[in-house]
Design brief:
The structure holds 2 protein chains of 2 kinds.
Chain A lengths: L1 H23 L11 E4 L8 E4 L7 E8 L2 H21 L4 H17 L5 E9 L5 E4 L11 E7 L2 E2 L3 E2 L16 H22 L10 H16 L3 E4 L8 H20 L3 E5 L2 H17 L11 E3 L4 H15 L3 E5 L5 H11 L3 E6 L5 H7 L2 E4 L1 H11 L2 H33 L4 H13 L1
Parallel strand pairs in A: 9-10, 9-12, 10-11, 12-13, 13-14
Antiparallel strand pairs in A: 1-2, 2-5, 3-4, 3-6, 6-7, 6-8
Helix pairs in contact in A: 2-3, 4-12, 5-6, 6-7, 6-11, 8-9, 11-12, 12-13
Chain B lengths: L1 H22 L4 H35 L5 H19 L25 H32 L5 H16 L3 H6 L13 H36 L11
Helix pairs in contact in B: 1-2, 2-3, 5-7
The chains are: A alpha/beta, B mainly alpha.
């Protein structure tokens, strides 16, 4: 009797859990309806837009697509290699391994499910019933798309697009059109200002203390008989800051060549070293002192960020350069350089377009070129009418940007009080066009 | 003539193609070709850089210039690491192809190359990075001296941000109701407001200037207005 009672008691939880499972069983949601697939317009032919009828209640939608040409080839190759490796491991001959690989390829072609790849899951609710498939590979036959609704972990049967859709490339990226217009306006403005300056209408620039201090800084190093250290950032020539840094280096090198001061340029990239050598050599030629050019003072150190810091900081402490220039792209090492330079009493001029590093240069350097000043440095120092004219064009561009900002802010403020009004719509259009 | 014309043409063509490739899908491949050329040049220049490193350090050692011992350490580290990596010395055998030494994993910490990276380079890098904390303290000490009105404003702002980001904010101004009319006087709220509005506005202004500066500098180089990097005739 006791035994029977024990069995009954132990069966109760099992029965309860089974009944709970039955109660928790959820019906699969109905399949999606109205599935359409279309090529995305105004792109590089690598995106599709998928739409379906809005689902009620909200649910998840799983999206898959057919494989691209290269994806299919890669998977077929993998299947062949796996089959051949297994055959060889089992002691098969080369011919038998080839046959196994061929069989695997045929099996791949016959298995329809292997021709699909999962893309992602999206939430489908009222008003949200679409998905963008981006970064698509090449597919000569186009893509088919499959979608499944999912609710509480249970998926509906899959719905497939009726026909494969071939993606097409547009002439221009439509999303980048506003930027193209902006660049065209800026280019034309700069062109007009350059022509105007070449005809004698040279703009007057405000004094930039950091640039005016260049001669004084190099002169100080000459008087003290110490070197001038120039750091062109830690990025490669692909970074415009490095290029801007080298244009500044050109001016510094001219001054050091004229004063017969020693200029040292340690670099983190070998291409920057090559470009820096060319730049400094050009500067020495320009002031008719080619004999004073020393390529051995422009060296490649290492690509490693902190390895470079260790070298430069050590060099600063040992050799105590009188002047240090930091012109280029800098990250965490900016303060390490600037504080080391400060500790040895060097006069320091920093310039970068990394907003996060500017406070460090401001705190630790004697002079700092902030953002746009850094890019204007070469033109400012050259004094050439054409280059100075380009700075005026840049300023007009800034004025246009400021007008757009003020207009956008005013429209957004008015739009906040009347979200349905035209001001809100205009503010949204500006944000959309600029983002 | 050639020393100016050809570089100017290359700069203009490469810059123009990259701009066009950004806006037109039809020319994206051209942009990729230009980038490939750039990478090829960088690879060749890397050999030049490695050669330069060897030459400079060997010269320093042979002439026994000051600091030649550092050059020796640099040279040894360079040669040994290069040998470990290129020759795959002591690489961990590949499970799939155990009989092929070249298929081994040289980046594993059980291989000399991976070991050097993990237990020599990484700790040295971390040590250099850790120095930053001390440099931040010394720079802040100097920057926050109340020498004039601007410095006092800077000091006051920094003081509010520092307190607002710590437990001190709750201790000092926690008694002010976050829903009340004086909620803006809470240190944590002030810190957030300064960062969100004042700091962000300033940063965006700088960013706009930088963006225009980049565009103008690029145009100067592409159109050949700025030729400071070229050899004069």
């Amino acid at each position: 009797m006791r035994r029977l009672l024990q069995i009954c008691v132990s069966c109760v939880p099992v029965a309860l859990s089974l009944s709970g499972m039955c109660l928790a069983q959820v019906d699969a949601p109905p399949p999606l309806t109205g599935l359409t697939v279309a090529d995305k317009a105004g792109d590089d032919g690598r995106a599709l837009i998928v739409h379906w009828d809005a689902t009620t209640p909200p649910m998840q939608v799983w999206v898959s697509r057919s494989l691209g040409d290269d994806e299919r080839k890669s998977l077929v190759r993998d299947a062949r290699v796996d089959a051949a490796a297994k055959a060889i491991a089992a002691g098969a001959s080369k011919a038998e391994a080839e046959a196994a690989a061929d069989a695997a390829e045929r099996a791949f072609g016959q298995d329809a499910e292997r021709g699909w790849t999962f893309v992602g899951i999206t939430e489908s609710a009222d008003g949200v019933s679409g998905f963008e498939l981006s970064d698509l590979p090449e597919a000569a036959q186009g893509f088919r798309v499959r979608a499944q609704a999912s609710r509480d972990g249970v998926r509906s049967s899959a719905v497939e697009s009726a026909q494969p859709v071939v993606t097409e490339s547009s002439a221009f990226f439509s999303a980048r059109f506003p930027l193209m217009v902006g660049l065209a306006v800026l280019t034309i403005t700069i062109g007009i200002c350059v022509r105007s300056a070449q005809r004698g209408n040279i703009p007057r620039l405000r004094k930039i203390a950091a640039l005016d201090a260049f001669d004084e800084a190099v002169g100080r190093a000459t008087e003290m008989g110490r070197s001038v250290l120039f750091i062109p950032g830690i990025q490669d020539m692909t970074d415009i800051q490095t290029v801007a840094g080298l244009t500044v280096l050109s001016r510094v090198a001219r001054t050091t060549a004229e004063y017969d001061a020693t200029l040292e340029v340690p670099t983190t990239r070998s291409l920057v070293m090559t470009a820096a050598r060319e730049t400094v050599q050009s500067a020495h030629f320009a002031v008719h002192r080619p004999e004073s050019y020393r390529p051995d003072l422009i060296n490649y150190i290492t690509d490693e960020q902190f390895g470079y810091v260790a070298y430069v900081a050590g060099k600063m402490v040992r050799e105590k350069p009188a002047t240090c220039f930091y012109m280029g792209a800098f990250y965490a090492e900016s303060l390490l350089f600037a504080e080391t330079g400060n500790s040895i009493g060097a006069i320091q001029i920093g310039g970068t377009a990394e907003p996060s590093q500017l406070p460090f240069f401001v705190a630790a350097c004697d002079y700092t070129l902030i953002g746009e000043e850094f890019f204007a440095a070469s033109a400012y120092l050259s004094g050439e009418p054409a280059q100075l004219g380009s700075i005026r064009g840049q300023d007009i561009g800034k004025l246009i940007a400021a007008v757009i900002v003020v207009l956008g802010t005013a429209l957004a403020t008015v739009g906040a009080f009347a979200p349905e009004g035209s001001a809100a719509a205009a503010a949204t259009w500006i944000v959309g066009a600029l983002s | 003539m050639l020393k100016r014309t050809i570089p100017l043409f290359i700069t203009g063509a490469a810059g123009g193609i990259l701009i066009l490739a950004y806006f037109s899908p039809a020319t994206t491949n051209w942009g990729e070709v230009v980038t490939d050329w750039m990478n090829t040049l960088a690879a060749v220049a890397f050999i030049l850089g490695g050669g330069n490193l060897l030459f400079v350090n060997l010269e320093k050692i042979s002439s026994k210039r000051s600091g030649w011992a550092y050059a020796l350490v640099t040279l040894l580290a360079f040669v040994v690491t290069l040998a470990f990596g290129v020759l795959k010395i002591g690489a961990v055998p590949n499970a799939q192809f155990p009989a092929t030494p070249w298929a081994g994993d040289y980046e594993s910490v059980r291989a000399p190359f991976g070991w050097v990276y993990e237990y020599v380079l990484s700790p040295l890098t971390a040590t250099m990075f850790a120095l930053l904390a001390f440099y931040v303290a010394s720079a802040a000490f100097r920057a926050f001296r109340a020498k004039n009105i601007e410095a006092i404003l800077l000091l006051g702002t920094a003081f509010v941000i520092l307190l607002g980001r710590t437990a001190a904010a709750g201790i000092l101004t926690g008694w002010i109701s976050p829903e009340g009319p004086f909620a803006f006087l809470r240190l944590d709220t002030m810190a957030v407001n300064i960062m969100q509005y004042v700091s962000t506005a300033g940063t965006r202004a700088v960013m706009m200037g930088i963006a225009l500066g980049i565009a103008a500098t690029s145009l100067r180089l592409i159109l050949g207005i700025d030729r400071s990097y070229l050899v004069n005739d």
